[in-house]
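>> received
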Amino acid sequence: MLQSWISDATNRNAASFLLLLLAIDLAFVFLYFVIYLSDIVNNPLFSLEQDRGYPEIYQYMKAFSIVILLGLVLSKTRAIGYGVWSLLFLYLLLDDALGIHESFGNIVAVNLAFAPGIGLRARDFGELAVSAIAATLFLIPLALFYVRGSGAFKKATEHLLLLLVSLAFFGIFVDMLHVAIRLGWKVTFLLGAVEDGGEMVVMSIMAAYVFLLYGRDGNIGSLLQPANIR
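>> returned
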């Protein structure tokens, strides 16, 4: 009975945390439209596309919380694979904050003489190459730990990988569309909203999911299953 109550409380806390994060996400997306379509708010720091703006800092906070929570899950479960996931999210945080794939992507494009094409710049292909290399460096050890891991770790890895693919869809695929498609400012504006807004929502789901992992001490269930949230 007590274990069931703890599980339900953990689900409720994770769901509440997710709703809070999503509410803030939607507020920033709303302000993005307000900034560009009216003069009510003219502070660019509220824009989704502003470097070191409030939405970007908010994303840093979510990524940092994921790194810490996965570290705590590692300390509780002793499953080394969670440490690899924590390092992966640390890389994503540093990449966003320092522009790692942009900087190295430009170097790769120059040294390998990448040529522009399909509406993309040479440096865009360099950035894709750097992101692919980074993904490989993390996914190979994750695959090894997945094969040897417990059922709980395997399920958590499957869910996190699905969310990571979703993040890549907005952060890479939609971002490239944002660069390649030139159909006027309205389309560019909407693609920017989809790209950055989508990344924010996915990162919020990730943060809430990892919060659930920590609360359940490795006894994994999916946030994506409504029946688990009462």
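>> The mean pLDDT is 84.
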